[in-house]
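Pair request: fold both.
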Amino acid sequence: MKVLLQLTLLFLLASLNLAGQSDIIKNGKYIVHLKTNGYSDYGIVFRNDSYYKIIGNDTIKGQIKWLSKNTFILLDKIKNPVTDSTDLAKILHDSFGEKCIEVMTTDKGGFKFRTTYVGQLHITINEGEFIKQKK
């Protein structure tokens, strides 16, 4: 009985650990290319459940929060003026939820995605591709 309990506990701990990073995102550097005109490509480095977004000379550090097997949010400490306001923009933000990234297809060189809202998954904000860079 004691062995069964230990095995069950070990299985649960392993499952919790696997719920963190999905195998979709491999550690390394990627170029993010958005299909929407007017947006420049930028770099991003994934390290386990952390990321570093490189835009020009600026680097933004943050955490990856997985919502499902193929959907995640990139969290950072940059203050969002919309969430701190009391106007219509905040009401819309609260009803739509945070922006999230849904992985559409994967291959050895990266993955294609769309950006949507947590509370309104039927709305596509933009689409793009994470292109894995060689070391």
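--- second member of the pair ---
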Amino acid sequence: MRPSQSAAVQRYITNARRRGRGLRHKHWHTEEFQLSALEGLVESMIAWCRSTMAHSRRPYGIDLFDLIVSYRFEKDGKARSFRLNKVRAMDLYQDLLPGNLLERLMDAMAPEQPVKVYISAAFFSWGDAAHNALPATPTNTR
């Protein structure tokens, strides 16, 4: 691929991302904070990510996604978030990603021990964005 073509592809994907192509979201909450409830939420998040990725397109083998997790405690109402960039689909089937999510949420929640926790996740599929951004048939840019 020539540099001019590569720049055009990057521009198309960036524009598709700005328009929200390939973006999905879901919300969870727990009534009482307990470690087992948090583990269940993480399991539910991973299952949702797996299902979402299974329905995502993967043109040219693009199987990356970004996961943005925001959460707030009922007690203070302050929203917090973290982001995992360019995660591979196969990471959903290994222990590192669920462990990372659980650790980040436990670290954030430990000092407060909230009664209710609200969690939202946004899943951005790079493959869906590429599919929506690129033309159905290649064009010759000579």
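Observation on the second member. The mean pLDDT is 83.
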